[in-house]
């Protein structure tokens, strides 16, 4: 929430991410969203209501349900199933391309638009792999000249999270 405000006021710069990093990122589903596949092969996403006072009051006053259900079509269901944190976006593009006989450009364009919508609504997040430690050696920087070693917790983490735009 604070980051969104800082980005809107242009007090904080968004991280620069190039196309190769986006293609190597791993989309991960929001754990608060439950989902199931029906007889037609379509996924039904059940999104719980936000637990804020004004939302609860408005839902009581207007008799709103405490959850929303969104039904995805066959391509959306396929992409949703692939957003498990194990498949990269490039793997999902190839899968959509092969499964639905699309060109690479068609698959990428529709997938990026769909992923952007899911990301804006906080249905998915994106995990990007950290740069390997051997990259500093390959770039000619001696590892002994690095001033501070990384803490143990950072060495064990595999992903950094990409802020949504």
What features would you describe in this structure?
The protein is an alpha+beta fold and 165 residues long. It contains eight helices and six strands; from the N terminus they run H-H-E-E-E-H-E-H-H-H-E-H-H-E. It has one domain (17-132, 158-162): Outer Surface Protein A, domain 3 (Alpha-Beta Complex), CATH 3.90.930.60. It has helices at 2-8, 19-24, 53-62, 74-82, 89-99, 104-120, 134-138, 152-156; strands spanning 26-29, 34-37, 43-48, 67-71, 124-129, 159-162. Strands 1-5-6 form a three-stranded antiparallel beta sheet. The protein has a three-stranded antiparallel beta sheet with strand order 2-3-4, covered by helices on one side. Helix 5 (89-99) packs across helix 6. The longest helix is centred in the last third of the chain and has 17 residues, at 104-120. The chain is flat.
Total domain modules? 1
Strand order of the largest sheet: 1-5-6
Mean pLDDT: 78
Structural class: alpha+beta
What is the alpha-carbon Rg in Å? 20 Å
Under the CATH scheme, which class? Alpha Beta
The tally of beta strands, per DSSP, is 6
Order of helices and strands: HHEEEHEHHHEHHE
What share of residues is helical? 40-55%
Q: What are the low-pLDDT stretches, counting only 5+ consecutive residues below 50?
A: 134-165
- Biggest sheet layout: 3 strands, antiparallel
What is the 3D form? flat
Strand content: 15-25%
Short structural summary:
This protein is of the alpha+beta class and 165 residues long. Helices cover 42% and strands 18% of the residues.
